Amino acid sequence: DQQVKQNSPSLSVQEGRISILNCDYTNSMFDYFLWYKKYPAEGPTFLISISSIKDKNEDGRFTVFLNKSAKHLSLHIVPSQPGDSAVYFCAASAIENSGGYQKVTFGTGTKLQVIP
Amino acid sequence: DAMVIQNPRYQVTQFGKPVTLSCSQTLNHNVMYWYQQKSSQAPKLLFHYYDKDFNNEADTPDNFQSRRPNTSFCFLDIRSPGLGDAAMYLCATSISRSYNEQFFGPGTRLTVL
After folding, report:
1. pLDDT surpasses 80 at B67
2. Which terminal residue of chain A, N or C, has fewer Cβ atoms less than 10 Å from its own Cβ?
3. C-alpha radius of gyration, chain B, whole number
4. What distance in Å separates residue B96's CA from the closest CA in chain A?
């Protein structure tokens, strides 16, 4: 049961254009959402996050949008740069009922290629 | 630089031969996590330590165990690896269990022959 879904395994974008990575979730208890970026041979690194009480969070070229009614979030990268080429994981967090801690659930990732 | 270190980066073992993967951190974080990631799949949480308190996920096989002898180190033991245990194993840390951001190591790629 995949609670966090990234339906696009890969995405190619021209340098300078906008990259839009999408993520859908099914668990309405998720209250915090994160995006991680992963380069080959490295672990995922935190990129940007958003709380469920907001609908937008911006950090430089990166903006995350949250649509709670649609259970959908997206990551926008503007302008895209070749160094942005990586795998992007969407993640969502909720209180684990049995343990009382925040449990993070990851999506399968989208591989972004920015073409110079 | 503060970081999460995993050794070895690549581990080959034989079917049924016990193997231990290592994780260390210089972040002084209270929580350490172990994830299993198979090809084209999402990282799957196996268990975590909150300080010395061990928390197992309900669907983690008994074949997987963990030890945390001190704040800095955490080990993943696979008692009898099967072919289906071949995967990338990621260690992560966070400041606390209520803090969502996690810091990951580079992972250990396990091959089972």
Report:
1. yes
2. N
3. 13
4. 9
